[in-house]
Recover the amino acids of this structure.
């Protein structure tokens, strides 16, 4: 499989690449440092033609064998180059509390994907600007896809929100609820 | 009647007559349940008159914990969960997942199984496109077009029911091939249904495509530039409407697509009409694919002949010790997927359905990420609608074909 993307990253931003390896199916993966990922994404998008943002997600490595448990979280990125028909697979490994730099300024599609990773794994993204929960509600406690969050975890009841920002019709100007 | 030498002009100017209005933008909820939106999405829209000033989609009303459930069942037990992702085209989800697992394991399925998967996926591609085409008419007020499209889709649903046993939640196929071969007489029924379907599709097409009211509302609305579309991660009909020739079936052919002759239609404006008409053209291409498949399909087994992966036939389970052991291991421990990870994509009706699977060698997935095409496209909805009029939001929301199940997993 072609390793164009990773070769270019190794040539142009060698300090960003922590390791590279090839998975079972023969595809190449690159592990990037958390603060370097926006530079790598910018390089891939603007100079190498990987303009299609495919997806982004997180993995919690708590239940893997001990040699793979640290750092705990892995954020995976998939970017595609349509002209060369290639997929760049990148990973960032962080522990709890370490922030990954956001690539929202490079790819607009990363907006929701980063919110998803924050919501379900608790990995926060520095520079995102609007990091709120994506699929769960604001008052949800915990991060649902972490391996230590129970499968059948229950949440407490939450108070009703006072909605001030919705227009309720004529005559209700200034009414808060 | 002011004459030319009058100093005082009694005609009042506009400033004197108008009261000074202080306007305020109005915030409305195109709420989670709304007759014009498909799926449960809350759009919090700030309006200045009829112009959308800002829009914030809020999703999560249909989140059912797909990933968490998948991490707690075996690889085969994930299959019914995948039906419920893109519930309009569930065969596409099923087969996409199975192909991803088979790529991770490195096994090849028999030829006949590949052709059956193509047929199933294309049937559901037609069904999904018919729903979108009909719903485009429905949202803009043309109820009859929707009913013709749904009648055509009912024909397909009947055929899929005969094939899999269920209308919507098909769970067809297993890791290593298909669990059942095609029923007797199904091929002729499908070919006859396709003839009737083509007639209904033509009627729907005639009602909509050159309809002045329809084209006025669809042309030029919901436009997105190619740069933005790629940035957001649009795939499928939404990116092909911009002219970007990206179809996973051609880019990385899987199953039997490299042996089939079909073309991929492209649009050029990136507006609603292109997304709509592209689906009509793709439906015609799918019909062509299905007919070719029936001609070219070989006979033979539909399941891989390895009892570590496929269930042994029941006679062997009851009569031989190998059968008993194989059955036991498959049911209790699950299919032996080796340690590793993979990203595998197929072309579902909405776009590139990607699967990032990570296995730790136990019988359960460690991580099962679905790259839903609708998720990325919905995140780009704000870009398509902000600054434009509110009524243009309705056909835009329809042509992107957001399916709540896959977006919110």
């Amino acid at each position: 499989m072609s390793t164009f993307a990773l070769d270019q990253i190794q040539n142009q931003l060698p300090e960003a690449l922590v390791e590279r390896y090839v998975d079972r199916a023969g595809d190449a993966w690159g592990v990037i440092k958390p603060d370097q990922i926006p530079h790598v994404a910018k390089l891939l998008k603007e100079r190498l033609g990987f303009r299609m943002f495919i997806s982004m997600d997180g993995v919690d490595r708590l239940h893997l064998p001990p040699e793979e448990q640290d750092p705990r979280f892995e954020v995976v990125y998939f970017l595609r180059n349509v002209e060369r028909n290639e997929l760049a697979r990148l990973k960032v490994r962080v522990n709890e509390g370490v922030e990954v730099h956001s690539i929202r300024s490079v790819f607009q599609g990363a907006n929701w994907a980063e919110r998803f990773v924050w919501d379900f794994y608790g990995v926060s993204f520095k520079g995102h600007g609007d990091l709120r929960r994506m699929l769960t509600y604001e008052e949800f406690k915990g991060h649902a896809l972490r391996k230590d969050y129970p499968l059948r975890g229950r949440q407490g009841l939450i108070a009703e929100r006072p909605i001030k920002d919705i227009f309720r019709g004529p005559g209700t100007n200034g009414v808060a609820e | 009647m002011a004459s030319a030498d009058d100093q005082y002009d009694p005609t009042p100017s506009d400033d004197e007559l108008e009261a000074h209005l202080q306007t305020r933008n109005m915030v409305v909820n195109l709420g989670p349940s709304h007759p014009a939106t498909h799926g449960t999405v809350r759009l919090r829209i700030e309006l200045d008159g009829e112009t959308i000033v800002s829009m914030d989609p809020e999703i999560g009303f249909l989140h059912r914990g797909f990933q968490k459930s998948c991490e707690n069942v075996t690889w085969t037990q994930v299959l019914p969960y995948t039906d419920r992702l893109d519930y309009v085209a569930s065969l596409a989800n099923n087969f996409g997942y199975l192909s991803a697992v088979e790529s991770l394991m490195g096994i090849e399925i028999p030829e006949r199984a590949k052709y059956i998967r193509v047929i199933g996926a294309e049937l559901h591609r037609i069904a999904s496109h018919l729903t979108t085409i009909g719903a485009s008419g429905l949202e803009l007020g043309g109820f009859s077009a929707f009913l013709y499209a749904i009648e055509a889709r009912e024909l397909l649903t009947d055929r899929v029911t005969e094939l899999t046993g269920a209308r919507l939640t098909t769970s067809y196929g297993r890791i290593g091939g298909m669990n059942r071969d095609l029923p007797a007489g199904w091929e002729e029924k499908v070919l006859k249904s396709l003839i009737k379907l083509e007639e209904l599709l033509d009627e729907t097409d005639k009602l909509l495509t050159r309809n002045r009211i329809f084209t006025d509302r669809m042309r030029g609305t919901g436009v997105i530039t190619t740069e933005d579309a790629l940035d957001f991660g649009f795939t499928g009909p939404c990116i092909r409407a911009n002219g970007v020739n990206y179809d996973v079936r051609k880019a990385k052919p899987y199953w039997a697509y490299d042996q089939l002759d079909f073309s991929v239609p492209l649009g050029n404006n990136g507006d609603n009409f292109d997304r709509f008409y592209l689906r009509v053209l793709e439906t015609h291409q799918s019909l062509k694919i299905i007919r070719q498949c029936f001609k070219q399909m070989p006979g033979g087994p539909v399941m891989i002949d390895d009892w570590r992966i496929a269930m042994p036939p029941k006679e062997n389970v009851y009569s031989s010790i190998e059968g008993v052991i194989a059955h036991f291991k498959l049911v209790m421990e699950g299919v032996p997927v080796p340690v590793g990870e993979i990203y595998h994509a197929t072309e579902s009706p909405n776009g590139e359905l990607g699967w990032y699977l990570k296995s730790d060698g136990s019988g359960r997935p460690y991580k099962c990420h679905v790259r839903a095409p609708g998720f990325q496209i919905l995140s780009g909805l704000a870009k398509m609608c902000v600054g434009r009029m509110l009524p243009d939001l309705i056909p835009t929301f329809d042509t992107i074909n957001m399916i709540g199940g896959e977006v919110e997993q």
